[in-house]
Amino acid sequence: MKYKRILLKLSGEALMGTRQYGIDPERLAEYAKDIKTITDKGVQVAIVIGGGNIFRGVAGASNGMDRVQGDHMGMLATVINGLALQSALEDADIPTRLQTAIKINEVAEPFIRRKALRHLEKGRVVIFGGGTGNPYFTTDSAAVLRAIEMEADVILKGTRVDGIYDADPEKDTSAIKFDEISFDDVLSKGLKVMDTTAFTLSQENNLPIIVFDMNKKGNLLKVVSGENIGTVVNL
What we know:
alpha/beta, nine-stranded mixed β-sheet, 11 strands
């Protein structure tokens, strides 16, 4: 395996499968099977998941809701998704721990860096819920922050697109895909990989990002093995 310890970033929307909202158990089971293919090979896996399939703080704020309240609701949505993913992983016989940036002791451990590192070293998957625990920060920012804290080798951003293009491939059939691109080129070309805060934090800490299609079975194993899947963003 090329990468020993990874941070996998999943969007909340990814859990919807073909549904319009909520969580698709079949999609969760598929993800669990893919994650098991790499944990069986000794790869240490940390996961940050969004909450957009349930609630988005930004969307709430645009409809007149207080932004801080909306972001707190979004944090709780990520915890719900984390619990669902934890259940799916455990059904696949993968020992898993859910840690949250906001204290909900009855359902998850509070985030403690040393404890999370110990879980990873013991071969447990660690899911980080609750974002960063602060409003105005996205789960992309939480993913980069946790990846740095966990000393991950790479951030794997699982999407429904097979990499980064110079235009939206779902709207422009002539869009060109990048196999590899630098942080500076992403910024200069105005390409959307992560929000600016998350992207800058990743760049400053020299933490590479790989954007790939998580919905294609076997892709996760290929990426971790070092195959040319998706788009690599690095210095």
